[in-house]
Design brief:
- The chain is 29% helix and 23% strand.
- By secondary structure, the chain is α+β, with helices and mostly antiparallel strands.
- Helix 1 packs parallel to helix 3.
- The N terminus is likely disordered.
- It is globular.
- Strands 1-6-7-8-9-12-2-3-4-5 form a 10-stranded antiparallel β-sheet. It has a two-stranded antiparallel ribbon with strand order 10-11.
- The protein contains 9 helices and 12 strands.
């Protein structure tokens, strides 16, 4: 029997401890570890004190107690890391606690809006039947330019088009034109400033987003499915004000069935946590099965997403219908490989 797993299962809904709670407990564990078998506190030769370079051995009961209180003993001098349990789906209450921890963490981030002539950079990787395809995109903050690799051919003569050459497009500032003519599209700057006006309360925030984000209504979609879709689309923005990131985590916690899964990997194989929902039946927007949004387990930065859709029996290419094998991957998978703010197209953070 694995006492650690069994004990954790008994306290699955225990709130996540904060640093103030963990600090004295951690000190007690380390203080006890410094005492040798005779009750003395050994010192390292040549120092006035210090930590003895020896392996720390805990009994099964002590190890279980450490696991329950949330203390992590890892990479100590002369010691070994506690092995991970692998993927673990948290209970509803534990998921809410984990998402609140994420919200509290991102709320502390600083935020500086880029200058109008700076560029937002994003490298993304999508997967088509398991094969990765990467692309890089630069977008000028004021909306007057964009660039991409591989390049995207413009209309007209493309006889000399080179997809491996950075393609840069400049145009007039269309922010006022978009505003006057009612375009749904916004520049990076406009969208960031819209997000900055959102209230911090998750319920009020989602109401404003539904009213003004304008991603389009889908007949038959439930409020919970709409909120999941709105949040998923919002995370495609590279820059999001910290208070809005926090509100999005709290909004995810309010979606019925949303759970946190720890100890997973994102589509690029990076360590991650995932926020998931599961749709047993096909939804109005075409999803079915497990839906996942991946985040860095320490910074809670967005890493990517995986959407499950009902398997397709065939696809049509150039007017020809082609059957797909039964095992063909029907998921829509995308990962954010890199991102940041740079001063010119072609530059990378």
């Amino acid at each position: 029997m694995n006492e650690i797993i069994e004990t954790r299962a008994l306290r699955d809904d225990c709130p996540l401890p904060d640093d103030a709670r963990l600090a004295p407990l951690r000190d007690r564990v380390l203080d006890a570890a410094r005492v040798d078998g005779a009750g003395r506190r050994p010192t390292l030769r040549g120092t006035g004190g210090g930590f003895p370079r020896r392996r720390i051995v805990l009994t099964a009961a002590a190890t279980a107690a450490v696991a329950v209180t949330g203390i992590v003993v890892a990479d100590l001098p002369g010691g070994t890391d506690i092995p991970a349990d692998g993927p673990r789906l948290l209970s509803a209450r534990a998921s809410a606690n984990a998402l609140e921890l994420a919200a509290n963490t991102v709320e502390q981030l600083g935020a500086t809006e880029p200058g109008p002539k700076q560029w937002v950079y994003e490298k993304s990787t999508s997967f088509q039947h398991g094969t990765p395809q990467s692309a890089e995109q630069w977008t000028r903050w004021d909306g007057t330019g964009s660039a991409s690799l591989p390049g995207v051919p413009r209309s007209g003569d493309i006889s000399d088009f080179d997809p491996n050459k950075l393609q840069v497009w400049y145009g007039p500032n269309q922010e006022e034109k978009w505003k006057k003519e009612g375009y749904d599209d916004r520049s990076q700057r406009q969208f960031y400033r819209f997000l900055a006006t959102l209230p911090g309360d998750p319920d009020r925030m989602m109401r404003r987003i539904r009213q003004e984000h304008a991603i389009g209504d889908i007949e038959g979609e439930t409020p919970a499915q709409r909120d999941w879709r709105e949040i998923h689309v919002l995370y495609r923005s590279v820059l999001i004000p910290p208070k809005v990131q926090a509100g999005m985590f709290r909004a995810l916690a309010k979606i019925p069935g949303a759970r946190v899964e720890q100890g997973v990997e994102d589509p690029l194989g990076r360590k991650a946590i995932a926020v998931t929902v599961n749709y047993p039946e096909r939804t109005a927007n075409g999803l079915q099965g497990k839906q996942e949004i991946f985040f860095d387990p320490e910074t809670y930065a967005y890493l990517g997403a995986r959407e499950e859709v009902p398997p397709l029996e065939s696809i049509t290419t150039n007017g020809t219908k082609m059957p797909l094998p039964a095992e063909a991957d029907s998921a829509i998978v995308v990962a954010r490989a890199a991102w940041g703010v740079v001063d010119k197209p072609g530059a990378r953070p």
